[in-house]
Amino acid sequence: MLSRAAENLFWLGRYMERAEATARMISMGQRMATLPGSQGQSEWTSLMQATGAPMPDGRPVTEVDIVAELILDPVSPSAVQACFAKARENGRAVRTALTQEMWESLNEDWRYLESIDTQAARRQLDHLLEWIRKRAAIFRGAVETAMLRTEGYFFLRLGSNIERADMTLRLLNVKYFLLLPETEVVGGGRDHHQWMSMLHAVSGLRAYHHHYGGDYAPWNIADFLLLNQTFPRSVAFSYSQIHGCLDKLDKNYGGAHNCQRTAKTELNRLSRLDINAVFSDGLHEFINDQIAKTARISKEVSDAYHF
Prior knowledge:
Layout: H1 3-33, H2 41-51, H3 63-71, H4 80-93, H5 100-114, H6 118-123, H7 125-146, H8 151-179, H9 189-201, H10 205-212, H11 218-226, H12 235-253, H13 258-272, H14 275-281, H15 283-304
Helix pairs in contact: 1-2, 1-4, 1-7, 1-8, 1-9, 2-8, 4-5, 5-7, 8-12, 8-15, 12-13, 13-15
């Protein structure tokens, strides 16, 4: 496969995953903003900080800013509309590598968001966020049920899982930013519901209950999102998929690279980690370090395959 085509599929996977993850993070921000004692602005500010979206000058962040910057902005790399547009652009460049269902999904998603304005998006925000999640699931289903398991598939899945690991880490950072101005609530009722909101955001409430029972302790929820080996949206599981894709590319098409070795090292490290040690050393520090390592793998993939 030409490096240009590999790059298009890699970023197609990343942009589709980012669009869904951003919608999930906004839903989490909504849920947190409705908790007793919430100031609303704090939740929206933390969301903007965690996604790296531009902050408004001299005024609090509002829901209008969230809709404008994280859903309908046509150019911001954090915005859903921009992600769908870039995913479609990358898909069009490798049209023959996609199934008909994949291309139709990309086209429909882009056209629909192009037709929505800010007022309409605010009026039906819940419906719109659910629509984004469902459209991402439809695309993912088209990939898994019809795409040939050739190198194109593995590059697309590689991009998806790198983005998923990064966005799960950023979702945890939303919680960190929320606690900065109000550390006195740590361990309280609102703190508990904020952690629960994170499970809702990743559709992981039932999976968590199956694994941990009714103990919704913060360290267990963090363990579930970071280190669990069986939950598809955990960082550790995403790393297992990253390593698996790189291993398939190596075995089927030849050429071990630094990215493969880095992914294996990180996967082994995550499998040995204890969440109590993570909290003891600092959850925020761990998250930032892991975001940097995920970015490093992405760069090493680009270097290895000449993106």
